[in-house]
Amino acid sequence: MTTRVRGVLLDLDGTLVESNDAHAHAWERALTEGGFTVTFDQVRPLIGMGGDKLLPEVCGLDAESSKGKAVSKRRREIFLKEYLPLLRATPGTAELLRALKASGLKLAVASSAEKAELDPLMKLCGADKVVETATGSDDAEGSKPDPDIIHAALKRVGLPADAAVLLGDTPYDVEAARRAGVQVIAVRCGGWADAELNADAVYADPRELLDHFKRTGSLL
Hints:
The chain is of the alpha/beta class and 220 residues long. The chain has ten helices and six strands; from the N terminus they run βαααααβαβαβαβαβα. It has a six-stranded parallel β-sheet, with helices on both faces.
């Protein structure tokens, strides 16, 4: 690296909150209600990319069509009402966030979540108490794996790409970070294996990353 890491960009779903399966179930139900034959196993590997990319990938539906918007709206309703109240933070999340903040690192959420989901997810894992800013799908033209959300978070937190690292859990996080010129740390708790993630460093979950950080003073 040419610049010391001064900030961490944080993904939410699957990284700080155990929500990937819930999102997949919500999409499956919304699509089934909309008349599409889609299984959980078809949707689950796509969780982590924006809904605008997931819909055409899983069933060929244009997210901007009236049908696409209706399915997306229904998915959001199902997720917020039926799944969000049951979710919990990934192991070690609260402690990791406090440790990163106490070390002087700037923290910013960089998520593909919509505003309606972004705020409650942040509160659930305690990110709302430590982050300086948060960007979601409403703040960027292209969703992950496009790098737009990463660029937006960097701009908000006032850091160049080589002074930040992204903490994520999917190949889509890794690709977005790579395309933005940001190093990336991945956690396996989102459901992907090391080879699929291909990140600069991989840990089991935020707790293991916290142990490493305490022991070495480094995230990588």
